[in-house]
Structure formats: C-alpha cells, structure tokens
C-alpha cells in the first residue's frame, strides 16, 4: 500500500500534520494549481498502515484519513515489483 494525497481535494488545513503519530506529513512549501499549500509526505515508508496492512489484513492506523475533512488522503495498492524504500529504526 502507498499513501497518496489528492492535490485537487486538499484545502491545506494541515490536520493530518497535527495528528499523525509517525510524523509522516509536513507542512507544504509550494502552492498547487489552485494556490493552496498542500502538505507533503516526509518519509512515508514509516507509515504502519502502508507497510503492514497487507500482512495483517486490516487497517492499522488511518488517523490521517479519518481526520481529513476533504477525504483527500487514501492508500493505493502498489505494483507487485515496485521498489520499496526500507527504513530500519532502532
């Protein structure tokens, strides 16, 4: 699974930045086509839902998706052989 922010739906409220327990989101720096500064993903590979939801067969976190008033945050399936960035935290 891969975390995706839909730029066309996001209004830049930054609620996802505030509630994410893994600090995956950070405040954006550039406006999109509508002039809204959309949050950016900072190391999305740390998201437990992205990494482990298929292994456990259920949603593990999803707080960002639940808090988003515009439903701009979703997870999409990745291609079977798409390269993954692995992060090992101690």
Features:
single chain, alpha+beta, two-stranded antiparallel sheet, 3 helices, 4 strands
- Helical content, roughly? 10-25%
Rg over CA atoms = 13 Å
SSE string, helices as H and strands as E? EHEEHHE
Largest sheet: 2 strands, antiparallel
Number of strands: 4
Structural class: alpha+beta
Care to give the gist of this entry?
With about 90 residues, this protein is α+β, with helices and mostly antiparallel strands. It has helices at about 15-20, 50-55, 65, and strands spanning about 1-5, 25, 40, 75.
How would you portray this structure in words?
The chain is α+β, with helices and mostly antiparallel strands and 90 residues long. 21% of the residues lie in helices and 13% in strands. It has helices spanning 15-19, 48-56, 63-67, and strands at 2-5, 25-26, 40-41, 73-76. Strands 1-4 form a two-stranded antiparallel ribbon. The chain has a two-stranded antiparallel ribbon with strand order 2-3. The longest helix is centred in the middle third of the chain and has 9 residues, at 48-56. The model has no long low-confidence stretch (mean pLDDT 86).
